[in-house]
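Replying to the earlier thread about multi-chain prediction with a worked example.

Input:
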Amino acid sequence: MIDGPLALLGGPVALQIGDALGQFLQPRTLARVFVDGLAKAALYVMIAAGLTLIFGLMGVLNFAHGSLTMIGAYLGGAILVVLVGGGGPTTLALFFVTVVAVFGLLAAFGGLLEVGLIRPLYDRPPIYQILLTFGLTLVLDELARIVVSFYGLQPISDWQAALGTKPPILTQSIGLGPVSVSGLALFQIGFGLVTVLAIYAFLTRTRYGLVVRAGSEDSEMVDALGIDVRRVFTVVFALGVGIAGVAGTLLAWDATWGASVPLASETLLPAFVVVIVGGLGTFRGTVVAGLLVGLVDSTMTWWFQNAIEFTGLPEMTIFLILVITLIVRPQGLFGLAEVGGH
Amino acid sequence: MIVLFALYPGIHTLLTISPVGAEAVALLPDVETMTAVLYFGLFAMSFDFISGYTGYLSFGHAAFYGAGAYFVVLAANGKIPLVPAGTSFMLLLVLAGLAALVLAIAIGAVSFRLSGVYFAMITLGFSQVLYVFVRGWNYVGSNPRDGVFVTGERGGFEIGVPFIDSLNVAIGQLTGDEIEGLLGAISLSAGEVSYYAIGGVVVVCYLAMQRILHSPFGRVMVAIRENEERARAVGYDTFRYKLAAFAVSGFFAGIAGALFAGFQRSVTPDDTFYFLVAGDALLASIIGGFGTLVGPLYGRLFDESVREFLSTAGAGGGLLPYLREHVPADVLATELVGGVTVQGAIEAFLNGHASLYLGLLFVLFVLYVPNGLLGTLRNRLGGTVASWTARQLERRR
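Result:
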């Protein structure tokens, strides 16, 4: 433990860093850190994708995104606990059933939210949408807390029953050449990759995606072409909320996240960081920023576990990435300068 | 409007000994809560000063509140260089404000290159960096995650005129002074002394901020909010104005944090630097009236009243103890739906879940009362409450 800011520069720590550097540069460590980083990146992109879709088209910065992810985690966990019961080889198939169910439920909920609450605010300054969704998080978090304590699902710590539904294949380590990787990390990477490809295909290969992209460029013009932009808004909001729910379901199996009420702010802040670093509203930027944040995060986590002892710093890393990016490139990696104006 | 606060303890005491005492205890926040309303109200005002008047949403404003609070506790523990442990609290208040001001200039200089959502996010980023840093920094105390408290023999912090003992009173939850027989008639409990002492500082800060807003400088702030490009075209260096306004706001946020630390004698990262603390200030500002300086104080009063009214067992009473005592047992045991009794429903939905109702109220305010309590009142009266009162008095003469 260090005693003051100056000790960071002091002697004994520097010696350790030299040793640690040698260890870090070994191929085995590098590969491990890389795979961990990819797994983290997959989760970050999953968490942030819905947020960036919604902002890209509608310009609404959805503060309730974290709460919706948290609700997805509980909902997914609950369905898994009911479906899986004893566990078995079909668990993975059941997981995908759960994902579809959670996506459907939350997308429906998101559609309702857009029509009921956000629609009246389009004529007001954008600050009011932030305020409204911020109020929404308070309500959703507290409702979740009431329900969770009513059924006694461990209000503060992670929900063990949902973690327990994980199939054994994901808890084992799988050997990939010289390095062994946890099955869960590989599953997360695969899941994240499929989701990113699906969203990308939706945006670039389908007709509706074309309308969405046009709408984010100039919604008035799209409206003038005879397309009901309001309905597109509702659909995209529903999609974004649904993806948040899917991300939550994926997190319910990960012991470092897990289903809990504080998950709302634990996911909201990284989602913001990823979205802002990538450039608000650009999907490509979000994916790149997710990779960046995930890899830096896993690298820094390794360093702080092995060389530098400062308890809080791994959590600090991603906010440092945010601050540094905004200082160097205020509009984000892939953002356009004029988007920052509103 | 701020005058009403001076009368509160007296009214509260009168009502609690009156025939409607039980209802008053349940409904009204007690003096201790009101003290919290005062210092947090000052923080909310400083948030409104920058966000409500220049239109830049400072989502990391908790950083300045936390800086002020930690400054006082660290200084009292003798951990700040050049500031000895026995420094008078009034001096500490100013120093804490200045520390927050320096921090605000550093953060503002970088952040004001951005606007809108990006500004909100970068300030949030800075405050989260500080939050995590303070949470892990062993220098502040042996267990930084759980916060630090004032160690040493020191009694309550004293507020008053520096170097004149008779004009100083100690504040604090358990350590404050009591005053008996002032002017032959007035006796104040320790809680009430703290209330008035902290209230005095808050009023001075409020008047200072109001003075700034009504000066030409304040007009430029509003011009930036209304149309920044036009303000720049007229010839104002808007960056400097924004930065100065941010620094002033940080200064008063630091003082608010220092008052909080002085009263509570302990701070934790979660109730100072955490971003939801700024969220609470936002809540107070919206409910009270965004862009009305005193509004956030009333917004916070509203918040705290609802919170205490719905708390598990608030010191000043609340709905739950009142219902437990006054609702007949057979009503409580009645089944509603599916085996849930009235008692169960009350416990599930009222027990400490004030945030739910505050959130609902907040959403309703954003949708239907965008000007907040005081802003709406002002629109009704056609001006500030003070000018309306003056006009009414003029008419009656």
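The first strand of chain B starts at residue 148 and ends at 149.

Feel free to reuse this layout for your own posts.
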